[in-house]
Backbone:
């Protein structure tokens, strides 16, 4: 592949860069997510075949002993329209790769006892660099920085966006039909756009959304777009859709009344990127991690146990 700068990175150089980046991503996922909830084989599959941002992975609960599936958003929607099996979606953050997304989805799946879809929120390194430069609380600025970093990742043949033609055409058609006002949705983040697409196509069956860190902002953005597209006449009442946020407290539209927010009392990153004055459950001695093997991590199960979760659709 020809780099946009005109440089032709050698295959050996690209492999070294990718190896270092994936090692960094694995470290981040291990710090912030409960990767112990995944088997070694599942982790190897997710790292050997990197999943692009915006793609959907379906993670079964551990007791099901089923394989993790990977879908383009269009393929996931088609499968769910044919046979509805998933009513819960998660989005991770803090530079998570597919492994972090799968770990969060597994945590939720183990609690509700059925498969959970996770929208991959990044390739790890790109998110961390963008957040370090400007903070994810400025959504538009962050997306602009991510685009520049994504272009660099393209140069080493590491795709950072969903580009399959079927999904692109289907998402474009769904958004065009919705006639979205740009004041109702911030474009440019593949994970948020993918969730909006799922809401527009599968809103009648989605009942639970769970986010962590930057993923909370992606969820809020998609929900705002959904309301704008539906003219506040969504297929599922916004008041009953259950939304759970972990690690950042943010403001949702008042139409969404079934919102439960959790943040650790010593979570400096989460508090720095939270909106002040909002109701949330403060978890004593907890920080930004969801990895149950680390001292002071937030337990996804303990948080969800405090919520009246919806049953199967």
Residues:
């Amino acid at each position: 592949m020809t780099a946009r700068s005109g440089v032709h990175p050698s295959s050996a150089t690209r492999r070294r860069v990718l190896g270092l980046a994936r090692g960094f991503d694995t470290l981040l996922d291990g710090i912030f997510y409960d990767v112990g909830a995944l088997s070694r084989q599942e982790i190897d599959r997710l790292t050997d075949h990197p999943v692009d941002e915006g793609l959907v992975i379906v993670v079964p609960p551990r007791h099901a002993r089923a394989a993790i599936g990977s879908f383009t958003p269009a393929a996931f929607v088609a499968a769910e329209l044919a046979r509805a099996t998933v009513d819960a979606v998660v989005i991770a953050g803090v530079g998570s790769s597919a492994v972090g997304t799968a770990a969060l989805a597994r945590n939720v799946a183990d609690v509700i006892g059925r498969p959970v879809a996770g929208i991959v929120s990044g390739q790890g390194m790109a998110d961390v660099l963008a957040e370090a430069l400007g903070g994810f609380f400025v959504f538009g600025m962050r997306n602009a920085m991510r685009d520049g970093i994504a272009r660099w990742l393209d140069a080493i043949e590491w795709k950072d966006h969903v580009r399959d033609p079927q999904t692109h055409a289907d998402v474009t058609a769904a958004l065009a039909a919705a006639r979205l006002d740009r004041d109702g949705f911030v474009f440019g983040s593949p994970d948020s756009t993918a969730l909006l697409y799922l809401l527009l196509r599968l809103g009648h069956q989605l009942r639970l959304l769970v986010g962590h860190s930057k993923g909370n902002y992606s969820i809020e953005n998609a929900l705002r777009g959904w309301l704008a597209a539906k003219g506040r006449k969504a297929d599922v009442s916004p008041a009953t859709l259950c939304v759970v946020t972990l690690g950042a407290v943010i403001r949702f539209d008042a139409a969404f009344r079934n919102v439960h927010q959790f943040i650790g009392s010593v979570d400096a990153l989460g508090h720095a990127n939270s909106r002040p004055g909002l109701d949330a459950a403060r978890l004593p001695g907890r920080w930004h991690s969801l990895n149950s093997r680390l001292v002071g991590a937030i337990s996804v199960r303990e948080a969800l146990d405090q919520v009246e979760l919806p049953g199967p659709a």
